[in-house]
Amino acid sequence: MQKASHDYNVHKFGGSSLATAERFNALKALLTGKNEIIVVSAIHGTTNALQTMIDAVLNGTDYSETLSNLEKLHLDIIQKLLPPHQQTELSLVIKKDISALNKLLASAKKSGSCPKETQDLILGQGEIWSAKILSGYLAENKKNIIYLDASTVLFTYEKNGMICIDWQKSQAELNHFLANKNFDQIIITGFIASTLEGKRTTLGRNGSDFSAAIFAKLFNAKCLTIWTDVDGIFTADPNRVHTAFVIDSLSYKEALELAYFGAKVLHPMTIGPVLASKIPIYIKNSFNPSAAGTHISSSPKKSPYIIKGLTCIDAVSLINIEGTGMTGVSGIAARVFQILHHTGISVILISQASSEHSICFAVANTHTDSAVNALKENLQFEMERQYIEGIYVDKHCAILSAVGDDMVGTVGISGKLCDSLAKANINIRAMAQGSSERNISVVVKDTDINKSLQTVHAGFYLSRKTISIGLIGPGSIGSTLLRQIYSEIEHLKSTYHVNLYIRGIMNSKKMLLSDAPINLSTWETELNNSPHQADLKKFTDHILTNDIPHAVIIDCTANPTIGQHYLNFIEQGIHVITPNKHANSGDLNYYKALRTLTHTKDIHYLYETTVCAGLPVINTLQDLLKTGDKVNKIEGVVSGTLSFLFSELPKGKKFSEIISEAKKLGYTEPDPREDLSGMDFARKLVCLAREVGHDVSLNDVKLHDLNSITDDQMETLINKAKANNQKLSYMGEISSDGKITVDIKSLPDNHPFSRLAGTDNMLIFHTHRYDAYPLIIQGPGAGAEVTAAGIFADLLRLVSYLS
Ligand code: ADP
Ligand code: ASP
Ligand code: MG
Known about the structure:
The two termini are 60 Å apart. It contains 29 helices and 30 strands. The mean pLDDT is 93. The protein is α/β, with parallel strands linked by helices. 41% of the residues lie in helices and 22% in strands. An eight-stranded mixed sheet has the order 3-6-2-1-9-11-12-10, sandwiched between helices. The longest helix is centred in the first third of the chain and has 28 residues, at 84-111. The chain binds adenosine-5'-diphosphate (ADP), aspartic acid (ASP) and magnesium ion.
């Protein structure tokens, strides 16, 4: 070879990194321009289009539109990318190639067949075009650029269905090619090679990664960087598992296992060539080059997780050979796998029952029929004599694999995997642990595979304090809550491992649903632009995801109908948090069912803010009761508006004047009669009385409706109170037997309610323990900030309960 080893960096660019002229531009910034070997895939979509045309020819359908689209795609990029003189030259080359392709396809169509050799020739065309375009583009920099068609130096042959490299011949041909050449960069076609007979072939779909690894070995490169469209190798396919994240470091063997068991981001053959010389591999995102990516090496960093990644293989059949009369199953097993081997079928997974009455294995669906036919043909003798009773096939399967070096010797991994699947109600059809103990694989029903990946991922990777959140009613309180969460979310994550995934926001008209956490700085615009009409069923289905271990709905509406759905949410396993009092103060039977269900299902229903906003009323009461205290009486001023009206009365103003003033100050509902009716007040007391254990309803409350009181009547009351050195208060009382009254009372000056000023609320708990001196809670009992903070505290309380 021309240069000393370890001078070169090999870069491989996948199809999406070459999808448009802009992507070619971006790619330049990722290169240094010196000592670089650049291996390219075809421009995004090209190989698929070439395959589509082959299929069309074989099916006798028209391929011309696909061909002209392909021509246009390449000519457009050339036009945008290259200077005029180069444009003409390369456009001519493309046009000539397209016309040659057309001839090949037309004659295949005529003959009704397209032999593998021709197919390989057609399929490999994309890489030749992309490499030529890139060479032209990079040559503009006055660099010494060489274009290399890999099929002139790379020689392969097939052995037992595997593609093998003739290393000696390839190295010699490459050395020969490089002799007396100086270069800054060599652009090499990925995916294509030659047979030993010199016919162009391919390395199989997705094979450019393999090409790059081969050239990394041939050049004895310093490192191999695979540029793709994701930030690295994820803990699971990010399209299927939205909480998956990048694995920063992997061993060669782990990467191989992940790739072999389905992680499409890396071709499984990529590892082989670089393993012996320990050439490190980086998987990086050409769309986000600053992300560190995944580093594959022989000494990976220690990971905090017991498994490194999850992968899956779709479209798999499970074949089960059973026979109670089988003696010496090992003999039969050997025969079975020999038959499959001779038929050229690779077995993905084997599991054998210890009873030795059955052998079960998985093959790709494309091989099922030939596997079964070959087995039936060759095991006829055993079947006729009933040594083998049947060969059963299930074509609707998929395989999930957990991979990681550290699985070796770690107890309980299969247990955890099975447990996660069982919790999600997923049946395991077969299971196998590789002898390397680097892989545990389970076969599940094909339709269950995404759910399986998501739930197993959540089980292994996510902090138990991860929760999927849906917020209904982003009005004043709801939007304040979102703002408060936004400002704390990172801190909660880094300090307490609390992951709050806001995945849905719904108002009365629209809803915003997202698998990734919603951006809390732009949610309002996104919700307004959302195409989805509000639909509670779809909303809850979305919030309850297999990706994330827990789900909560926060109802920030004051809507009675949403409250009627809590039971259903809880039945589905969704926790509920709300400031909405309707569920707790409405129909008694519904309330009781709600309480019973939350106790039996271990699903939490938190509603601190239903009474006096963020003041710790419900929690205090619950703590008293749980620790065995008994409530004698509760007194309360639980309306900020009414509190204000009565604290202004002693100043000599008329009641109606104070009401207008309160309205102006924004203390009342838009229609003050709603406050004056005392209904909201009564609801809060019903909530509290029920919390204590009284079976009461709103109709049982003896309520003084202030709408009926005149200024004169009020004046009489206030004068009478003054004469007795007392103050008026609109207060509620829950007696020890659960009677609730809400009325105007004249109270001595030293009564705590007489000290209330402004809009403050106050609750007085008279209990067995707090007897001589009652327990008093006082403070603002309304307002968006304090209510939202109370809901936020409920959310964090909920997270602390999760396990
Ligand atoms: P390229 O064209 O660059 O070779 P591929 O499409 O072959 O890219 O591979 C990248 C894709 O692999 C990603 O976009 C992603 O959809 C898919 N993928 C599957 N499993 C994983 C995984 N575990 N980590 C990252 N990507 C994965
Ligand atoms: N272009 C080929 C394919 O699409 C090879 C590759 O991209 O790796 O399969
Ligand atoms: Mg690829």
